[in-house]
Amino acid sequence: MAKKIKVSAPGKIILSGEHAVVYGYPEVLSAIDKRLFVEIEESKAGLSVFPSEGRSYVEHALETVKTKLEVGKLDNLKVVVSSEIPIGCGLGSSAAFAVAITTAFFEFLKLPRNLKKINEIAYGIEKKQHNNPSGGDNTISTYGGFLLYRKETEMFKVFSSLKTRVFPSLFLINSGKPIETTGEMVDRVRRFYLRSPLKVEKTFKEVEQVTRGFLKFLSKEESNLGELVKTNEELLERLGVVSKKTMRLIRKVEKIGGFAKISGAGGVKENSGIMIAYHADPEKLISFAEKERLDMFRVKLGEKGVRIEQNAC
Ligand code: MEV
């Protein structure tokens, strides 16, 4: 019987530090309970990919894996990708894909499972996708849990797993898929940085303070989660990565006593992707979402990183 491997990797949210992380500032991320699945099986007739729109991504991942692992023969394969993570909304679907497919090839080739190597290769796949990623998204998808992550240089990226308290109930609101890609949003901030380096550096430094605030929150030294979310959102708005439509929605959440921020690259033309929302009284948020007909769902944080779902012959 043909060898069949199934691997899953989680999506992520960024509690604080998106964009600033590209410039060497720290970020705090968490893996979430939405996963992407990659199944690979030996086939006799070359490469087949399901759904077929994913073919170019799979081909490109295959090339990266073949080059990095110096293997020649990875051609007769059936690859099936399925996902619970909405695509292109800031939940790390492309990183989860890169991590899951790399791990699947490791299993398929019977290589020892080496998370460091898998993470490195997944970063290589992400780089072709987004030009200049920080590497935070693939790292959280590989290791899971909560991470403090920092890209010191292209070569040196450091992270630490955060043992944390039970997190209060958080919701995700999908403000809609941004028109812009992550790469375009990173580039937008880069152009702002080039125009006004002092202003942007100042904002990044303030983001870093909020990121440290989240660390204190996770270690119970600080309790005001709502204020941290609110300040982080204000700084992201100052960086120019939140659309007017999304800002209006966030102001409405604040009016009912809640807090919300975008998570990830954002978007300005129309939508800004996923938002993290918090209210001390979750029922208020639930009835607000019903009234406004929002796509809102509860999210579990600190979930497991990449894992093998099936390895059978
Ligand atoms: C994307 O999820 C987060 C950004 O900071 C880009 C990156 O870290 O590569 C906007």
Description of the structure:
- There is one protein chain.
- This protein folds into 2 domains: 170 residues, Ribosomal Protein S5, domain 2 (2-Layer Sandwich); 130 residues, 2-Layer Sandwich (Alpha-Beta Plaits).
- With 313 residues, the protein is of the alpha+beta class.
- The chain is globular, with a radius of gyration of 20 Å.
- Strands 1, 2, 3, 4, 5, 6 and 11 form a 7-stranded mixed beta sheet that branches. A 4-stranded antiparallel beta sheet has the order 8-9-7-10.
- Bound molecules: (R)-mevalonate (MEV).
- The site of (R)-mevalonate has 13 residues, from helix 4 and helix 5.
What's the SSE blueprint?
Elements: E1 4-16, E2 27-42, E3 47-50, H1 55-69, E4 77-83, H2 93-108, H3 115-130, H4 136-143, E5 146-151, E6 157-161, E7 170-174, H5 182-195, H6 197-218, H7 225-238, H8 244-255, E8 259-262, E9 274-278, H9 282-292, E10 296-299, E11 307-312
Helix pairs in contact: 1-2, 1-3, 2-3, 2-4, 3-4, 5-6, 6-7
The protein binds (R)-mevalonate (MEV).
Please tag this protein with its features.
313 residues; alpha+beta; 2 domains; 9 helices; seven-stranded mixed β-sheet; binds (R)-mevalonate; 11 strands; Ribosomal Protein S5, domain 2; Alpha-Beta Plaits; four-stranded antiparallel β-sheet
In short:
With 313 residues, this protein is an alpha+beta fold. It has helices at residues 55-69, 93-108, 115-130, 136-143, 182-195, 197-218, 225-238, 244-255, 282-292; strands spanning 4-16, 27-42, 47-50, 77-83, 146-151, 157-161, 170-174, 259-262, 274-278, 296-299, 307-312. The chain folds into two domains: 4-162 and 302-312, Ribosomal Protein S5, domain 2, CATH 3.30.230.10; 170-299, Alpha-Beta Plaits, CATH 3.30.70.
